[in-house]
Amino acid sequence: MKHYLVTGGAGFIGSNFVKYILKKHTDIQIIVLDDLTYAGNLGTISKDLEDSRLEFIKGNIVSHETVESVFEKYSIDTVVNFAAESHVDRSIENPQLFLETNILGTQNLLDTARKFWAVEKDSTGYPVYQKGVKFLQVSTDEVYGSLGETGYFTETTPLNPRSPYSASKAAADFIVLAYAETYKMPVNITRCSNNYGPYHFPEKLIPLIIKNILEGKKLPVYGDGSNVRDWLYVEDHCNAIDLVVTRGRLGQVYNVGGHNEMKNIDIVRLTISTVRRLLEENPEYKKALKTDIININDNLITFVKDRLGHDRRYAIDPAKISSELGWTPETRFADGIVKTIRWYLENQNWVDEVTSGDYQKYYRQMYGSE
Ligand code: NAD
Ligand code: DAU
To answer: Which CATH homologous superfamily contains domain 2-201+231-259+313-331?
Structure first.
């Protein structure tokens, strides 16, 4: 049995990864460490917790005591670090929390892993680690900065982060690489483009637009809507991380993206027309509507003040992970967006819960206190 510490496993991608691993593998025990911030919701994985291969611990990755106690209690051999403050707009409002969680949290996890995994020193003084251990840092394409009309980010593109969020993620990447160099720690970094799919917190573009449509609210598009993001279905990202954990060459960075660039305004228009079509096709979905005014069209779009320092375009070149590990995305955007919108139409309880601030409800139910 392998023992994975999955931090941030109650958030969007982390919870999808937990579900993916439980379904795909039988020989992996997962310990989720998550502080259940506004973005983490234990309800998201409460069904999965019925499986004895999954355990949940509420705690902060920045705390030495917490992380040490997890390593002490479980024979952790793999860390997959999803835990982070992840929203660019919030990082513009409150950078400090991003630096604490994303940088110091990563460093604390690395230090603890180093302490527990190093079994001896070689003749030159470098640590020698237990067999089969690995630290995987889940990073982002935003560390590369912003592209013009053409070109792609490759793993050798110089890092040029431009928001407090991406600067904190880039700092964490540098620390991970520094630990690989200085202490010879067995690490990988994945840098992925924009994910979409189930359990995406409705502050991010796609789930926010769906939520606002259902509430009959305006749909805020920053600037002129022509900024470009490169969208990837979350399950394809989970598959990529699984491959890198199991087969990635130590010390390597892998970009993950599905060649699916779209302008924000086109994403918003497509979301509007897809929600409208699905509501027309299936009267059951009308239960998801929170308003009587059903006028779902492009008039809902409102162009608002641009994000400060708004990155223009992201686009990933995934050639390395494709050629080395055989990864290819399975979900075409046309199918993924319909699956995603259907999921939101069928899971308004989840949306209500995470947006009501009652995201710790399941924690109280299962563990009795905060
Ligand atoms: P999310 O905000 O949905 O989830 C983050 C999770 O981390 C939450 O469950 C939260 O409770 C937990 N958390 C936050 N601070 C913590 C702390 N101090 N200690 C323990 N747990 C803490 O984020 P996401 O979109 O799922 O992103 C996961 C990771 O993937 C992040 O590292 C992010 O930078 C990276 N990433 C995200 C995307 C994307 O499109 N969402 C793309 C590329 C990379
Ligand atoms: O590229 C990977 C990154 O993708 C991850 O590292 C981040 O954690 C994740 O949040 C995401 O960052 P973005 O800033 O690209 O995602 P967001 O959904 O916030 O915005 C997507 C685009 O849509 C961006 O150009 C800003 C725009 N936008 C966003 C919101 C919330 C709008 O126009 N209106 C909105 O209301």
So the answer is: NAD(P)-binding Rossmann-like Domain (3.40.50.720)
